[in-house]
Amino acid sequence: MLKSNILFIINPISGGKDKLRLPGLIDAHLDRTKFNANFAFTEYVGHASEIAEEAANKNFDVIVAVGGDGTINEIGTKVMQQNKVLGILPFGSGNGLARFLKIPMNTVKALKVINNYQVKLIDTATFNDKCFFNMAGMGFDAHISSVFAGNKGRGLSGYLKLGLREVLSYKPQTYRIVIDGSEYVRTAFVISVANSSQYGNNAHIAPTASVTDGLLDVCIVKEFPMYKLPVLAYEMLNSKTDSSKLVEIIKGKNIHISRIKEDAIHIDGEPFFMGQEIAVSVKPLSLNIITPDYEV
Ligand SMILES: Nc1ncnc2c1ncn2[C@@H]1O[C@H](COP(=O)(O)OP(=O)(O)OP(=O)(O)O)[C@@H](O)[C@H]1O
Fold first, then answer.
1. Are 242 and 210 contacting, i.e. CB atoms less than 8 angstroms apart?
2. Does residue 77's CB lie within 6 angstroms of at least one atom of ligand 1?
3. Ligand 1 atom showing the smallest separation from residue 95 Cα
4. Using an 8 Å Cβ cutoff, are 97 and 296 in contact?
5. Which domains are assigned to the chain?
6. Could you give the C-alpha distances from 203 to 5, 50, 143, 147, 232, in angstroms and in order?
7. Rounded distance from Cα 46 to ligand 1 centre (Å)
8. Where are the beta strands (DSSP E) in 167-276?
9. What's the CA gap between 71 and 90, in Å, rounded?
10. Residue 283, class by beta-carbon neighbours within 10 Å (0-12 exposed, 13-18 middle, 19+ buried)?
């Protein structure tokens, strides 16, 4: 059998975990009868994307994102453009897409999934000119990721501390949302457009989302009094937001969101700044990705 050339692109800062000894661990567990392995460490924001583009142009068949959803985004965009195969070794703070796909959080077990090499096509989406794979949106979560980006400490506890501080001062905004031709005007705390069901850490904002249905779930988190925050957290952690009084979910293919001002957005948890008008579209079954055997 012809061996595949596989490149592991490792984000050294994602999830706040040390990864210096990771190439050795991968070497010990990767099936050498199937793969020739190479490794690269990213040195700055956007570097994973550059490395992935170069590798896809050369003779790499499989490129593995070693990091979280931001790393997957940079690499997945290039892998998709060049019609190669994406693998994931989850090493992020939240690991939304990896958890949704049921890729094990344990590295040795996740390597077994790569060795098993079941490739599946999943939907991706665009948010104006940017691709996303897991979740993109605006409102409080975008605000939080833009503030978090300026913070030194990563990891879940840093996120939670910052979130609690910011939640008290954040003011919901009014949006005009058109979903496949139907108009909705809503004052929202958050608008999330979901490909998978969760942000990460099993916080499910869109419990019935599928990455193979050709649809996105527009999740509108309504304005609510802060004492109801634990209710929302409970509903997310127990996949109950589809019957929540705090969240409205509308599925669609083409979404247009107009807002009152230019503002922060997030793409797979990474902050950007965009104008008032945002167009979101699904690209059905557009990315080859290695998943476990079982259905997702
Ligand atoms: N060497 C580096 N120094 C600083 N930033 C980097 C470096 N390499 C990659 N990055 C950036 O790190 C960001 C965060 O990566 P990623 O999303 O994978 O981790 P995370 O935020 O900890 O996890 P998750 O998205 O699952 O919560 C990405 O935007 C990526 O561009």
1. no
2. no
3. 26
4. no
5. 4-116 (3.40.50.10330), 130-283 (2.60.200.40)
6. 35, 31, 18, 20, 10
7. 9
8. 173-179, 182-194, 216-222, 247-252, 254-259, 263-267, 270-274
9. 10
10. middle
Give me the helices (H) in the chain, please.
22-29, 47-57, 69-81, 96-100, 107-116, 140-149, 156-167, 229-237
Contacts of residue 271, defined as CB under 8 A and 6 or more positions apart, other chains included, come to 142, 145, 146, 148, 149, 264, 265
* ipTM value: 0.96
Q: Is the CB of 70 under 6 A from ligand 1?
A: yes
**Coil/strand/helix, residue 49:** helix
Residue nearest atom 30 of ligand 1, based on CA coordinates: 45
Share of residues in the chain with pLDDT > 90 (%): 84
The string of pLDDT tens digits covering residues 53-112 is 999 998 899 999 999 999 999 999 999 999 999 999 999 999 999 999 999 999 999 999
Q: Given the CA of residue 69, which atom of ligand 1 is nearest to it?
A: 25
pLDDT tens readout for residues 188-247? 999 999 999 999 999 999 999 999 999 999 999 999 998 998 999 999 999 999 999 999
Note whether 264 and 271 are within 8 A (CB). Answer: yes
**Hey, what amino acid is at 77?**
T
Q: What is the DSSP letter of 205?
A: S
- For residue 48, report the distance from its CA to the centre of ligand 1, in Å: 9
> How far is the C-alpha of 122 from the C-alpha of 182, rounded, in Å?
26
Q: What atom in ligand 1 is closest to the CA of residue 96?
A: 26
Does pLDDT of 149 surpass 90? no
pLDDT at residue 153 in the model: 59
How many Å apart are CA 286 and CA 124, to the nearest integer?
6
